[in-house]
Design a protein that fits this description.
The protein is an alpha/beta fold. Helices cover 47% and strands 17% of the residues. The protein has helices at residues 27-34, 86-96, 108-115, 121-132, 136-146, 149-173, 175-212, 226-234, 277-292, 308-316, 351-362, 375-393, 397-415, 421-429; strands at 6-9, 17-23, 47-53, 56-66, 77-83, 102-103, 214-219, 252-258, 261-267, 295-301, 322-327, 340-342. Strands 3-4-5-2-1-6 form a 6-stranded mixed beta sheet. It has a 6-stranded mixed beta sheet with strand order 8-9-7-10-11-12, sandwiched between helices. Helix 6 (149-173) runs antiparallel to helix 13 (397-415). The longest helix has 38 residues, at 175-212. The two termini are 16 Å apart.
């Protein structure tokens, strides 16, 4: 794959400036062919030039040439900084198509960086996490991974397991000298590796919220102010609000952040008995959303006494992680119990306390230093832990060695040291073109 030169825009088309990247062995000859200035004479220096297609000047531009291997992909690279209008960009891309290069596939620049040893697979995946980060803490976690945070922690586990394997190999090769030492030392190394995996898995389960967002469902009977609360949390009018009960007939989903944490906020139809057919479909979706959410925000009408519909919602959410709020608190002064938050979506009363409660429910131990946020990494760590559990129960050294090697395989799928090419292709398919 890497013997072919590729090109693609790496910025949005339509702005003031567009950046087009070229990577591969033809980069230098392309620069000499389509640029009026010899930018290859001064690598890593941005130069003013003209982009030329034959005798036609396409654009006044800036360009920079990077010589391998000190580049993002590990190959010769050329960047063109041209005007960002669609006609200009298309003309430049058409010019590049005549040079022997081809359009890059999704994520191909980062894929080449991985294949050429410029970064491990976990760092490559973090590139898109940085791009897609929806909140400040998500961005910090992604940057930590981009800087090698995941590789560092899982490599420490790998080193422990490799040391254990070395002890087993020595015991098998020199049974009279090393057998007893292996039986004493290997279990300790396996136990330490398991302990580190347990800690990574625990932090990963909590840390996934930084990558995927906490799914928060607003539920309650009709006309308690769920849509008003959605709008208040978002800080804009997203949902239609009327005095008529049952206005919301389907779920509405929006992404926002609370104290740097990404939240997927879902407004649902009011839950009540005896609803008409269309409304009943929305209610069923609300019930389904309640089962699948990470946190339920149960809204009660603070200006009225509880009725059977309120009690039904409270019963449905019983046993789930939830926050119970009394909306319209400006119209009442009675609090149901100590676990209930008094708020007013209309006036903003209690909204700061509600946001603090949402942030607290995520967990104070979800920090910017959480290295594991990727579901694929968490799955691999859980499989590696299972292998070490089997190793701890095995009686023969060769069986222990087999289980350890299986654990190393799963850890290797995280860094890319031992991963199937189909997995690699699947990962980079989700990247945007030009990255």
């Amino acid at each position: 794959m890497t013997d072919k030169t590729v090109y693609a825009p790496s910025s949005a088309i339509g702005g003031a400036i567009a950046v087009i990247r070229i990577s591969g062995s033809l980069s230098k000859s392309i620069a000499r062919r389509i640029l009026s200035a010899n930018v290859t004479a001064t690598p890593a220096r941005l130069c003013h030039t003209r982009i030329i297609d034959g005798d036609e000047v396409i654009d006044e531009a800036m360009a920079v040439y990077f010589a391998a291997p000190a580049t993002y992909t590990g190959e010769d690279m050329l960047e063109l900084h041209c005007h960002g209008g669609a006609q200009t960009v298309q003309a430049v891309l058409a010019c590049l198509s005549k040079t022997g290069a081809r359009p890059a596939e999704n994520g191909e620049f980062t894929k080449r960086a991985f294949l050429n040893g410029k970064m491990d697979l976990s760092r490559a995946e973090a590139v898109m996490d940085v791009i897609n980060a929806a909140a400040s803490r998500s961005l910090k976690a992604a940057l930590l991974q981009l800087q090698g945070g995941v590789f560092t922690v899982v490599n420490e586990v790998s080193e422990l397991l490799l040391d254990a394997l070395a002890g087993i190999d020595a015991a098998i090769d020199y049974p009279d000298e090393a057998y007893e030492d292996a039986y004493e030392d290997v279990p300790q190394r396996i136990a330490e590796a398991r302990s580190r995996l347990d800690a990574l898995i625990a932090s990963g389960r909590r840390g996934r919220v930084l990558r995927e967002g906490l799914r928060l469902a607003i539920v309650g009977k009709p006309n308690v102010g769920k849509s008003s609360l959605l709008n208040a949390l978002l800080g804009r009018e997203r949902a239609i609000v009327t005095a008529e009960a049952g206005t919301t007939r389907d779920t509405i989903e929006e992404l926002f952040s609370v104290r740097g944490f990404p939240i997927r906020l879902v407004d649902t139809a009011g839950i009540r008995e005896g609803a008409a057919t269309i409304e009943a479909i929305g209610i069923e979706r609300a019930r389904s959303e309640l089962k699948n959410c990470d946190l339920a925000l149960v809204v009660l009408d603070g200006s009225a006494a509880l009725d059977e519909n309120d009690r039904a919602v409270l019963e449905l959410s019983k046993g789930l992680q939830r926050l119970v709020v009394q909306n319209k608190a400006d119209l009442c002064s009675i609090k149901l119990d100590e676990a209930t938050l008094l708020i007013s979506a209309a006036t903003g009363l209690g909204m700061a306390d509600l946001e603090a409660a949402i942030a607290s429910s995520i967990g104070a131990d979800v920090t910017d230093e959480t290295p594991i946020t990727n579901e694929r990494h968490l799955f691999a760590l859980e499989r590696a832990r299972e292998c070490l559990l089997h190793a701890a129960e095995a009686l023969e050294l060769d069986c222990i060695a087999t289980d350890i090697r299986d654990g190393l395989h799963w850890i290797g799928t995280i860094t890319g040291a031992d991963v199937d090419s189909q997995v690699i292709d699947r990962i980079f398919e989700n990247f945007c073109v030009g990255k």
